[in-house]
Amino acid sequence: MVAAMLLATLSEASWATEQAQQRRAGRDVRQETRQGSRHTKQECRATNQQSNSQRRQDKRQTRQQGRQTARDIKY
């Protein structure tokens, strides 16, 4: 009986660790996406390629793609 309880506890702990790793990986992806979208916006602003609204839309799309990638990792 004690062995069964120990086994159940260990499997729960390993699942929690796996979830934590997935959350961390998702967070890292979102962080990288934010940095990338900021960099893209700054480059676009420096070269004056697009209107401000178009830059906002591009940044928004980039961040949404990053969020979706993080969701794919997490779930």
Report on this model:
α1 runs antiparallel to α2. It is rod-shaped and about 70 Å long. The model has no long low-confidence stretch (mean pLDDT 80). It has a domain of 47 residues. The protein has two helices and no strands. By secondary structure, the chain is an all-alpha fold.
Summary tags:
75 residues
Number of helices: 2
Q: Per DSSP, what share of the residues sits in E-state strands of 2 or more residues?
A: under 5%
Residue runs with pLDDT of under 50 for 5 or more positions? none
The major β-sheet equals: none
The percentage helix is over 70%
What gap, in angstroms, lies between the N and C termini? 33 Å
* Overall pLDDT: 80
Rg over alpha carbons: 20 Å
Order of helices and strands: HH
Q: How many beta-strand runs?
A: 0
Structural class, from helix and strand content?
mainly alpha
Gross morphology is rod-shaped
Task: Detail the topology: elements first, then pairings.
Layout: H1 2-47, H2 52-74
Provide a quick synopsis of the model:
The protein is an all-alpha fold. The chain has helices at residues 2-47, 52-74. 92% of the residues lie in helices and 0% in strands.
